[in-house]
Amino acid sequence: MYGDYTCLDCGRTFDVPHRWTERHGFISPPYERNSCCPYCGGDYARTILCDGCGEPITGDYVQIEIAGKRYCDQCFLMRSLDENEKG
Ligand SMILES: [Zn+2]
Ligand SMILES: [Zn+2]
Fold first, then answer.
1. Rounded Cα gap, residues 27 and 39, in angstroms
2. Residue-number span of the structural domain to which 16 is assigned
């Protein structure tokens, strides 16, 4: 299974982001970022699984609101081509 979060850089999924506190010697915020991908330190987002291929979507994704389904670029492109062929 996939984790709750997907790294946007390396594409791995995980349940618990790596967290730390970057105080820069100050007592109060702002802290610029205090969590990241535990594997590569990259940005991450909640895991969204493609309804076409079932893989986590790490890039842009397209949501078809009527169907309530989400597709990665590749699957959406394939669906678009299919629908165009059917007319
Ligand atoms: Zn990563
Ligand atoms: Zn897909």
1. 28
2. 5-86
Q: Supply the pTM of this predicted model.
A: 0.69
Q: How far is the CA of 45 from the centre of ligand 1 (A)?
A: 11
Structure token pair of residue 37: 């991908």
Please give the backbone phi and psi of residue 74, each rounded to the nearest 5 degrees, phi first.
Answer: -65, -45
24 CA → ligand 2 middle, Å = 41
Task: Tokens for 65, please give them.
Answer: 């609101």
Bridge partners (DSSP) listed for residue 41: none
Structural domain total, the chain = 1
11-55 pLDDT, tens digit per residue, is 999 999 999 877 767 777 665 668 999 999 999 999 989 888 999
